[in-house]
Amino acid sequence: MVTISRLENYFVLTNQKISYILEILPDGTPAHVYFGKCLPHIDLQQLQYICRREGKSAGTIKVYKGSSFSLADQMLEYPVYGTTSFQSPALMISVNQSPLYLNLSLQDYEIHAACHNEQPEAMPHCRFDEHAKTLVLHLMDETWKIGVDLLYTLTDDSAMVIRQTKVTNHGEQSIQIDKAASGALNVGGSDWDLVHFEGSWARERQQVRQNLVQGQVDVQSLYGSSSHQSNPYTVLTRTGAREDQEDAYGVNLVYSSSFLNEAMVNEFDATRLVSGIHPLTFAWTLRPGQTFTTPEMMMGYSDQGMDGLSRVFSRFIRDFILNPRFAYRHRPIVLNSWEAVYFELNEDNLYSLAKKAARAGIECFVVDDGWFGKRDTDTTSLGDWFVDESKFPHGLDAFASKVRKLGMEFGLWFEPEMINEESELYRQHPDWVLRPPKGRISYGRSQLVLDFANPQVVEAVYQMMKPIIEKTGLSYLKWDMNRDITEAWSSYLDRHGISQMELFHRYILGVYSLYEKIQRDFPEVLIEGCAGGGGRFDPGILYYSSQIWVSDNTDGFDRLKIQYATSMGYPLSCLSNHIAEIPSHQTGRLIGTEFRKDVAFFGILGYEINLERKQDLDEEQIRLQIETYRQMEPAILHGDLYHLRSPFHSNQPAWAIADKEDLYVGVYRILSDLQSVPTASLRLPFVQKEENHLPKEWICNDQRLTSALLAQMGLRLPSSNNGTNQKSAQMVGDFQSCLIHLKAVR
Ligand code: DGJ
Predict the structure, then answer these.
(1) In this structure, which residue's CA is closest to atom 10 in ligand 1?
(2) pLDDT digits over 225-247, tens only?
(3) Contact 494, 545 (CB under 8 A)
(4) pLDDT for 297 beyond 90
(5) pLDDT score of 562
(6) Using a 6 Å cutoff on CB, does residue 411 contact ligand 1?
(7) Comparing 338 with 52, which gets the higher pLDDT?
(8) Largest interatomic CA distance in the chain
């Protein structure tokens, strides 16, 4: 149960897992006191004892003349620009380029059911249930009549606090919001490592860890998407701690555009992470009476390091972000045409593939890029969402029916936000493109970006997509987005006298509104998110797309790293993984079927191969793989993931997924290593931990094993070649793997 109480100048928010405590300072500013394990019996005396201030912080500017009170040494819940705290603020407001020095103090507060949190239209948000409660602190600046509401929501059972901020102009003149972060996470002490996920196209979410010292580190995207290069999921973990030990805090944003997470350590040894929309490409005009609502910020806690944190975030995303229609539902196993045929598709070669796919037990046949306009290369036709009849002379709807007759669902690729100059849409509406009236324009994959800040453009794109969805009866839609936004200038905003600084935010609201339209009219269509691979992997997209194509890199080894790191902040049931051909189309590497399978199984399985070509796996093998995966799928959808050995640090990475009935352990050996111990075992400490509610006994290959044994001594691994046992060893050579199944004894 969530309880939120006020004890004089303290607010205490508690659920079964955590407590979050804040204090209202003498000037009415909310300051942070505590976030961590539940403190069930905290009372006023204890709070006063722990918060008692003695002496003054030297060298600081004071709030009042003659007093020792400064904001500089406080852990501020929502720091404002230009106060006695000099760290990067969460809020900056100006009028005619002149900053306002706000004095936000608590005026009032309310506690209500979280389901009453109003969202602006088409803004992804947590789908709170009736148990979740929100504390709203109403802060007010009396000089400028600016109200700032700080929202804190707790659910019954998650070690998570959801923050959101609303800025309202109660004054009589327009103001400009130059920065409005969603919130700030404060943690005591400066002994923290920052873990973030950086990368590039085909190399998304490479895990980076760096020690924080006094100063600031920014994790950010300026790409107009959450990006390949970074990710809004950012973690603070104790300096040098193991991945599964000690306190860890994580933040994420329910947002898909440019973001900024600022991690800072000040001279008082306090660490703060301010997170929100990137202020460099954002400013928002607020007319009298208007409110701006920030994206929601997730703040999670675990005492089991970032591995424990991954379960906090995964469960929360499954329960409160994903569309409940799909969250725990079986997802179709697809065969995607992209790596099979690229642009060389027509109804005949696709149908031959489809027949083989159906025989192999594939459940959904997806026609990727190339089916529309005159799209024979990536230089043309984006925006022309009508069927290329030279490739489908009998129509795409007829092709879709033939696929369904084979017993499969039908899926289709779109890239709704983009346009090629070589297209009918561009010839009709050149002004629908983001581009300044003069000067430079840049190209990515020969394409330009449509002005999704213009509702007419969004509606026009939808009106092209709708008949295709209807006629083909598709049940799976892959939504791609293959370039970042440059020269962000909208003629629509110009015509309407709206500042171009609002473009990036309005653009992503346009993207969300298209998602809303599709889901309103076609609620049963599963939309897979994609952005040239995993360039927009964030909770904002996950609100609409219950699964996202993790990366364009389908090489088994690279994928293991990308998936392992992605799973640090996201549930496996959101990771769309396809088994692809060898040599890998991206790396040229030759990695065997077993390894590729054992990687792809940790997520939503699919295939990206041309069964007409000679492969290292045939229809029968695929059928068997699918059968095995089917057994594992409940654990993927409902289970908890445990990170055991990181592919970023170990030659023998390992992870395990467990639900109440089954435990699957994936063990990999990247390079052949003659130091291998012939009788290696892998300890599974998590099986014995009370809070994981796992059984006390398991069966593995007819062998009964207690959780105590698995935790203390370990699970026996297949023997590895150590140089003298090559003939008898089970793991010989590079890129070896095994997937071990343990069944619960209840
Ligand atoms: C990028 C995607 O990530 C690929 O899977 C594929 O759909 C191509 N785009 C098609 O152009």
Answers:
(1) 369
(2) 999 999 999 999 999 999 999 99
(3) no
(4) yes
(5) 98
(6) no
(7) 338
(8) 85
Instruction: Compute, in angstroms, the gap from residue 234 CA to the centroid of ligand 1.
Output: 27
Catalytic residue list: 480, 552
Whole-angstrom Cα distance, residue 480 to residue 527? 10
Amino acid 549: pLDDT: 98
| Separation of CA 480 and ligand 1 centre (Å) | 7
Quick one: tokens of 396?
A: 């795409």
Q: For residue 338, which atom of ligand 1 is closest to its CA? A: 6
99 alpha carbon – ligand 1 mean position (Å): 45
Q: Is the CB–ligand 1 distance for residue 537 below 6 Å? A: no
Please say whether the dihedral angle defined by the alpha carbons of residues 613, 617, 619 and 623, taken in this order, is positive or negative. negative
- CA–centroid distance, 23 to ligand 1, in Å, is 50
H-type alpha helices, 545-702 = 556-566, 593-600, 619-638
Residue 224 has pLDDT above 80, yes or no: yes
Percent of the chain with pLDDT over 70: 100
Output 347-356 pairs: Cβ under 8 A, ≥24 positions apart.
347/391, 347/392, 347/393, 347/394, 347/399, 349/612, 350/399, 351/399, 351/402, 351/403, 352/612, 353/610, 353/611, 353/612, 354/402, 354/403, 354/406, 354/408, 355/406, 356/611, 356/612, 356/619
Contact 543, 321 (CB under 8 A): yes
- pTM for the model stands at 0.98
Alpha-carbon distance of 181 to 255, in angstroms, equals 12
| Chain segment 644-690, per-residue pLDDT in tens | 999 999 999 999 999 999 999 999 999 998 887 767 899 999 999 99
Q: Is residue 608 lining ligand 1, measured as CB closer than 6 Å?
A: no
Q: What proportion of the chain, given as a percentage, has pLDDT over 90?
A: 94
| Ligand 1 pocket member 533 (CB < 6 A) | yes
Taking 80 as the threshold, does the pLDDT of residue 56 lie above it? no
Q: Hey, which of 530, 550, 554, 576 would you mutate to test ligand 1's pocket, going by the most ligand atoms within 8 Å of its Cβ?
A: 530
Nearest to 515 by CA among 477, 489, 472: 477
